[in-house]
């Protein structure tokens, strides 16, 4: 028979753990909300090289769901009825009825030849400029630090309760 004697520490930890289902989701949600703005900055940095009016970059936001502790970061800008983020990420097929003047304005800002840019979009489509992988590559260190901070804060609360030692 093995007998374990405790000075009350194990009982304290067990007491803190019994209340964990109530406070761990709150603690996780707090850390998820800290990560959202960092991810937004990383995505804005990733789309910036393709900036024209800034509408896409400015439309990037973070949206939270407390039920499943999820943060969603995405641009909401539209180009007509099309999602501007999807167009930038994936490009398009040829657009036979591509409007001339908006493309001419873009070409003027970017220094692209006209009507060459307009003809290229009509015949081959808009080129893809993937930004999601660049966003994630830049965000991984922030995510690592955030997950470590979350794990540390949960461990501290399990060991010492609501007040830190």
Q: What's the total number of strands?
A: 4
Work out the helix count.
Answer: 7
Any idea what the radius of gyration is?
25 Å
Q: What is the CA-CA span between the terminal residues?
A: 35 Å
User: What oligomeric state best describes the polypeptide chains here?
Assistant: single chain
Helix content: 55-70%
Number of domains: 2
Looking at this protein, list some descriptive labels.
2 domains; single chain; 165 residues; mainly alpha; two-stranded antiparallel sheet
Question: How would you summarize what this structure contains?
Answer:
With 165 residues, this protein is mostly helical.
Can you walk me through this structure?
This protein folds into 2 domains: 115 residues, no CATH class; 34 residues, no CATH class. It contains 7 helices and 4 strands. The chain starts with 8 loop residues before the first helix and ends in a 5-residue tail after the last helix. Strand 3 and strand 4 form a beta hairpin. Strands 1-2 form a two-stranded antiparallel sheet. It has a two-stranded antiparallel ribbon with strand order 3-4. 59% of the residues lie in helices and 8% in strands. The longest helix is centred in the C-terminal third of the chain and has 29 residues. By secondary structure, it is mainly α. The mean pLDDT is 91.
């Amino acid at each position: 028979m093995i007998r374990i004697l405790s000075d009350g520490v194990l009982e304290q930890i067990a007491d803190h753990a019994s209340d964990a289902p109530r406070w761990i989701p709150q603690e996780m949600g707090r850390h998820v909300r800290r990560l959202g703005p960092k991810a937004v900055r990383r995505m804005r940095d990733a789309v910036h090289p393709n900036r024209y009016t800034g509408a896409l970059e400015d439309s990037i936001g973070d949206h939270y769901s407390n039920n499943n502790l999820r943060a969603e970061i995405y641009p909401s800008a539209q180009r007509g009825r099309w999602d501007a983020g999807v167009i930038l990420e994936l490009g398009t097929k040829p657009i036979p009825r591509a409007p001339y003047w908006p493309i001419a304005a873009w070409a003027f800002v970017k220094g692209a030849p006209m009507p060459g840019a307009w003809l290229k979009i009509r015949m081959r489509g808009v080129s893809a400029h993937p930004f999601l992988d660049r966003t994630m590559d830049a965000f991984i260190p922030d995510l690592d630090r955030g997950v470590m901070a979350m794990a540390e804060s949960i461990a501290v609360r399990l060991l010492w309760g609501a007040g830190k030692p």
